[in-house]
Amino acid sequence: MRAPDYAPDNTRLAGAAAIELHNLTVSYRRHPALHHVSGHFARGSLTAVIGPNGAGKSTLLKSLAGLVKTEPHGHITRAPGLRMAYLPQHSELDRSFPLNVRDCVLMGLWPQTGAFGSATPAMLARVDAALEAVGLQGFERRPVGTLSSGQLQRTLFARLLVQDADLILLDEPFNAVDSKTTAGLLTLVKQWHRQGRTVVAVLHDDAQVREHFPQTLLLARECIAWGATAEVLTDANLQRARAMAEAWDETAAICAIDGEVNGLDFDTLLARRLATTPTTP
Ligand SMILES: Nc1ncnc2c1ncn2[C@@H]1O[C@H](COP(=O)(O)OP(=O)(O)OP(=O)(O)O)[C@@H](O)[C@H]1O
Q1: pTM for the full model?
Q2: Is the CB of 56 under 6 A from ligand 1?
Q3: Residues near 63 by Cβ (< 8 Å), separated by ≥ 6?
Q4: Are strands 75-78 and 215-220 parallel, antiparallel or unpaired?
Q5: Closest ligand 1 atom to 89 CA
Q6: What ipTM does this complex have?
Q7: Is 110 in the pocket of ligand 1 (CB under 6 A)?
Q8: CB neighbours (10 Å) of residue 258?
Q9: pLDDT band for position 32 (50/70/90)?
Q10: CA of 82 to the centre of ligand 1 (A)
Q11: CB of 28 closer than 6 A to ligand 1?
Q12: Which H or E element spans position 220?
């Protein structure tokens, strides 16, 4: 697979960071999924986000994409004019939506077409070039609901191609995809990297990360390590991430951030929690 050659205009981005996290914390009903994460994704970097189940990897990507509310004491700074594209996990896609492959890819151009605008011949040519790049020529009129997992993922990569983004966020992009399709999609990812785009991908396969991703962020709700892949994926760091995951209390009633939630100090919250926790006879 080969992407059409339209490189991003990186001159629009200021500084070395594409996106910066400052003390990022995200909670669902006050249970922290991400806790005090700080650091930055350098412009043009290719980073794998890795960690145990429930480590907050998808939550991080959704935060970067601006799809979840972050706690007020932390924030995300994006380079001015940064164009983002986000590929959600398979399980979050509604395959029953009546849409054919061409229209699904065309949706990547909606900032230009508008919600009800019509596509120009140039836009349709761009869509067709993207479909050709992922090896899906001839599938233009197929309903997306009839595609195999690998074909659907190639369609969604074609949509990323036309989006022409500076920052590309991929949540488990090779899940339920065979090794040949994975190799083709990895080629596209590496091509985006060569073009100077910033790519962040949630992955589970350590060997794949070591081979193809120069940077890694190891998460276990907190940042365990973030930097060059070989320095991050050490036995000690992986063990620490596993130990943190084993210690998670999914039933914990409160999230005490910096020892204070909604104006209450940690001791008060702890006392309240103990008061509401049933004691065993
Ligand atoms: N919408 C939600 N409402 C409530 N809790 C949520 C929601 N989304 C995620 N969580 C919880 O937040 C924590 C982190 O979830 P997240 O999906 O970000 O982890 P992950 O690292 O991507 O996991 P996995 O590897 O299993 O995909 C988990 O405990 C999860 O149950």
Answers
A1: 0.84
A2: yes
A3: 21, 24, 26, 34, 70, 76
A4: unpaired
A5: 27
A6: 0.97
A7: no
A8: 11
A9: confident
A10: 26
A11: yes
A12: strand 215-220
